[in-house]
């Protein structure tokens, strides 16, 4: 069982698992019980305007996958170029984790990944991205394979 506590943001021991040639996904080395802190989603903290600019830039320069995670109404964590293992956690409509914004001992907001269910050792970590459909955007198809799959991530 992961001994990390959400109060101190102590990280659970995880290892990257290669699922296919294009995907790296973290999995717990000792398993985790519900409500246990798994890891923090880290990256560069930027504002909304910069996030919009970077999204356009990443689209134009062929970056491909981008890792932008909204922290609150004005801040975004960009883990595209600099980030930790949490950026590789995939979406699922039937997740074993969830995200939670909480205050750290440094007085700043942190995005944490928390176990939603018992997660056996070596299992793929996943959470529901809960993406919003942007006014001019199209639905992003979901291929998670869960029995309750909504067919889209937003």
Architecture overview:
The protein is built from one helix and ten strands; from the N terminus they run E-E-E-E-H-E-E-E-E-E-E. Mean pLDDT is 84; it is low at 1-10 and 18-23. The strands form four sheets. Strands 3-9-8 form a three-stranded antiparallel beta sheet, with no helix packed on it. The protein has a three-stranded antiparallel beta sheet with strand order 4-6-5, covered by helices on one side. The protein has a two-stranded antiparallel ribbon with strand order 1-2. The chain is globular, with a radius of gyration of 16 Å. The chain folds into two domains: 1-40 and 84-154, Beta-clip-like, CATH 2.170.270.10; 43-82, no CATH class. The protein is mainly beta and 154 residues long.
Keywords, please?
154 residues, 2 domains, Set1-like, three-stranded antiparallel beta sheet, histone H3K4 trimethyltransferase activity, nucleus, Beta-clip-like, globular, [histone H3]-lysine(4) N-trimethyltransferase, 10 strands, disordered N terminus, mainly beta
Write a brief caption for the model.
GO terms for molecular function: histone H3K4 trimethyltransferase activity. The protein is 8% helix and 31% strand.
What is the fold's blueprint, element by element?
Layout: E1 14-20, E2 23-28, E3 37-41, E4 44-47, H1 48-60, E5 68-70, E6 75-78, E7 90-91, E8 97-103, E9 109-115, E10 126-127
